[in-house]
Amino acid sequence: MKTTTSKLHFYITTPIYYVTAAPHLGSLYSTLVADVIARWHTLKGDAVFFATGTDEHGQKIAQAAHAANKTPQDFTDGLISKFQDTWQLYDIEYSKFVRTTDQYHMHGAQEFVKQLIAAGDTYQAAYEGWYCTPCETFISNPKLECEPEPLCSSCDRKVSWLTEQTVFFKLSNYQNKLLDFYRANPHFITPKERFNEVISFVQDGLKDLSLSRTSVSWGIPFPDDSVHNSVIYVWVEALCNYITAIGFGKSGKEQELNRWWPADLHVLGKDIVRFHAVYWPAMLMSIGMEPPKRLLVHGWIKVNQQKMSKSIGNVIDPIQLCQTYGADAVRYFLCRQIPINQDGEFSISDLEQRISSDLANDLGNLLNRVVTFAKALNEESNIFTELPGLELADFTGTIESQSHFDRQSNKLRYLVTSIIDEIEGYMRDGMLHLALACLFKLVKATNTYYNEFEPWKLAKTDKNATSKVLAATAHALQAIGTLLWPFMPKKMEEMLSQLGTSMNVDGRNIIMELTCNRWTSPFSLKPGEQLFKKPESHKHKKQTKAIESHSEQTIKLNSTITIEDLNKVELCVGTIISSESIPNSNKLLRLMIDFGPIGIRQILSGIAPHYSPLELLGRQALFVVNLKPRKILGLESYGMMLLAQDNNGKPQLMSPILPVAPGTHLR
Ligand code: ME8
C-alpha cells in the first residue's frame, strides 16, 4: 500500500479483560499488538483512537469476588490499577480505558439492547441448555461423554445445566446477511484460516442468541424488565464497549461516534472470534450500524506447549519481566518471536537470545560504533575543543551533510525505501513479526555496509569518503530508529536523540517523509549510554528461576542443546514426487523428494506398514537434509523424513498447514 497525504482516522481496540486477577503476558500481548499498530498509524500522521479496558460483570467475576470475600465492585476496583499500571509500565498509550461498571457504559449497553428490541429482532422464551462460566458462554456441543459432568468443548472445564426465562436475539435471521457481508469484505478477518472457520460456522446455520440472564445478579439491569429482574448477558454488554468508548448512547456525542465508527481494527485472541465475527456484526446490523472493518486474530502465547492461562497456573508476570529485561526489550521480543497468526512459545532463553543478538549486538552496537567513532574523528580534528568554555562532557560529534553519495551508499538508501514499502504491507495486515524480520534485514545490511567500508581505516587516507560512510550509516540508523519506534518507543527515542534527531509525532506523515528523504541533513551526535545491554544471566538467575519455574519442571537442563548445536541440523520441507515399495522389504518405501533449489533426492523411509506408496504422492513433509548418506538394501538414502507417532502408533508426516515452496528451510 502506498502512503497517502490525506489525514485518516484510525480506531483500534483490544478485548476488554476479565478482572479476575492481575493481567498476565497474554493480556499484555493483545494490548501491545494494538499499541504498536496504533503508534504505526500515528507515525503515518493518522488521527488515532485506541480503546482498551476491563470486563467486570458476570458470574465469573461474581464467583471470584465471593472467593475473595469481597463485593464484586470492591473486588474489581481493587484490581483495576494492576491493569493500568502494567500498561503504563509498557508505554501503552491508549486513548480510553473502558470499565464496564462505568455509568456511561452501562447506560450505552442498555440503549443498545433497547434498539435491538425496537428493531423487532428479539423475543421471549425459555432457555434450556449448558453454560460454561469460565467462558461466560452457552455451549451447544459440550463433551457429553464425560458425564455425569460434561465439559466445555472450548476450555474443557465443567459446564452446568441452565433453565431460565430469557430474551433472545434472532441471530438465525442474519445467516445470509452475514455471509453476504463476508463475501463483500474478503479481508474482514486476518488470518484467512480463522475467516474460513467463521464462514463454515455460519454456513452450518445459526441459533438465536440469549441476551438476558435471570440467574445472575452482577450485571447491567436488562432494560424495562421489572418482572424477571434480569441482567444483560455479559458478552453482549462487553461487546458494546467498542461503541460506548466513543460515545454511543450519550447525547451530544453523535459526532464523535460518527467520527470513529466503524472501528478500523479489533485485535483479539483466537478464543473469542465467534463473538466478534458473528454475534457482534449481526447485532450491529440489526440496529443499523456498520460492522467493524477488520479483525486481527492472534494465537496463544504458550509455555511448555500449553496455553498460558490463569486456570492452568503457568502465567508469566509482565511486571517482573519488565523489571528484569526492560519494557522495550520485552515489547520487541513478543512482537518478533510470536508469529501473530499462530501460537508461539515463550521462553526466557529465547528472550535473552533475542536481546543479546538482535538488540545489543546488531542494533545497539552499530549505533555505539558510529557515534563514538564520529566523536573520535571530531576530537582528532579539534573542531570543538577550540571553542572557549566548552567542557569535554558537552562534546558532540558531528556528521556533515552530504550532497551526493557513491553507488554503494545509494544502494543502502534504496534498500531503506524498498523496505519501508514492504513493512507498510506487513503492518497493514498486522503481521508484526514479519515487519520486524524485514527491519532487522535492514539493520544487518547497514552493519555490512559499515563493516565493508571500514571507516576507521578509510579515515587515515580519505576524510571525505569517511564522512560519507558515517552520514549514510547515520541516515540508515535514523530510518531504523523511526520505523522501530512503534515497537520500542523509549529506546528508539533514546537512539534518535543520540543521533541528534528527535521523534516528533505531530500529525505529519513521517513514513512518507522517510521514503522521500534525500539524505542531506547533518547530524549533531550526542553519545549516550549503551542502548541495550546483553542480559547478565548470572546476575538475574534468581528472577529467571522464578519466571521459569514451570519450564524447569519439564525441561531437564542436561538435555538442552545450544543454538549452535541446533544450527548444525539442516531441516527442509520437501514434496514427495514419487513413492514405491522396495522388493524384499515390508518396511521401507523408496521416496523421491523435490527440495526445490537443493534438487531431487532419494530418501528411504520405514513407513511401508502404515502408508501405501500412492497415498504419499504430492504430500509435503519435513526432512533432515544434511545427514550422512546411508546405504540400505543396496540403495542410498540422502536424508531422513521426520515423523511423529500418533495415539494409534501411526507415524504422521510433519506437513506445513499451508503448502510452502519445496526446499524451504526451517528457522
Ligand atoms: O475473553 N496468549 O477476556 P479475557 C495470547 N472479557 N493472548 C491471550 C492469552 C494467551 N495465552 N490469554 C489471554 C475475555 N489472551 C472477554 C473479552 S471483549 C468484548 C471481551 C488475550 O480476560 C487474548 O486476546 O479472558 C484473549 O482473547 C483475551 O486475552 C481474553 O481475555
| SS strand fraction | 15-25%
What compounds sit in this structure? Answer: ligand ME8
Structural class: alpha/beta
Shape: globular
Features:
Isoleucyl-tRNA Synthetase, Domain 1; 23 helices; alpha/beta; about 675 residues; OB fold (Dihydrolipoamide Acetyltransferase, E2P); binds ligand ME8
Task: Write up this protein.
By secondary structure, the chain is of the alpha/beta class. Among the domains are: 348-524, Isoleucyl-tRNA Synthetase, Domain 1, CATH 1.10.730; 563-653, OB fold (Dihydrolipoamide Acetyltransferase, E2P), CATH 2.40.50. 42% of the residues lie in helices and 17% in strands. The protein contains 23 helices and 27 strands. The strands form eight sheets. Strands 1, 2, 3, 4, 8, 12 and 13 form a seven-stranded parallel sheet that branches. It has a five-stranded antiparallel sheet with strand order 21-20-19-22-25. A hairpin with a 5-residue loop joins strand 26 and strand 27 (651-653). Helix 11 crosses helix 12, helix 14 runs parallel beside helix 17 and helix 14 runs antiparallel to helix 19 (510-516). The longest helix has 34 residues, at 348-381. The protein is globular, with a radius of gyration of 29 Å. Mean pLDDT is 89; it is low at 1-5, 382-395 and 538-558. It binds ligand ME8.
